[in-house]
Design a protein that fits this description.
single chain; mainly alpha; Tetracycline Repressor, domain 2
Length: 278
Amino acid sequence: MARPRKEEAREDTRGEIIQAAWRLFSSSGYDATPLESILSMVGISKGTFYYYFSGKEDLLDAVVETVIERIAARVEGMSRDESIPPLERMRRFLEGIAVWKMDNLEIVREVAEVVYRPQNAIIREKMNRRTVEKLAPVLAEILAQGEREGVFFTGAPRDMAEIVLRFFAAMAELQVEDYLRAAREGAAEAVERLVRRAELYIRAMERMLGAEEGSVYTLDRRMVERAVGKAGNNRSGPRGRSSSRALDRRASTGKAVDTGKGSPGRGRGRAKGHPGGG
């Protein structure tokens, strides 16, 4: 049955608000983007905005949800084919996450700066949990195939998938700290630290999976150098161009918990739902 036109119109408006926030957070930064700029870009009133979101933090949560949805779609598209050997599927799984983040570095960096503030621990935990929910089924399929073909030895693919992703979230927090320090300390030191930690993570993950050392993933140092270079350039000058074209008009739904800083809750009619990781 087709959905009522009013429902489709509400989804379109909500998606347009998220898309505008994506553009402005990417180009100007979360803190420097007043709510009025978002309203002006979409062409709506405050009353309409508060129909969908309780405040700016709620909107940020929806942007985070969209980031997770986009990463999950990219990863699933690259790694779901069961005709591919499991080690290659695993490589594509990890590469899909890394490449998407590189292609959308402005919004990833801006989201990370806000979400990883101490006062936003609740949003961060929800982001990590949502990431696990989205990516664990795909990773579990890869690990199960690897068990059948004798390249992974976990005993419980689904449980191990969740453990690996939680481990990944902890590693992502360290990476965020390193990227945000890159402009202050210099690119060379930041690259060395990021590469060292990433290689340790990869080796640890291989041991968790029972895989041969060096068989799962080889870090591309050039990607780290490009990411750190972008971080430094964006700190010393105008922010990069918007990556909003990565969004569909119908952005994914999601509602944030109160972080204690939002506007008064006037979000009647908002969809409920919503991570996941870095």
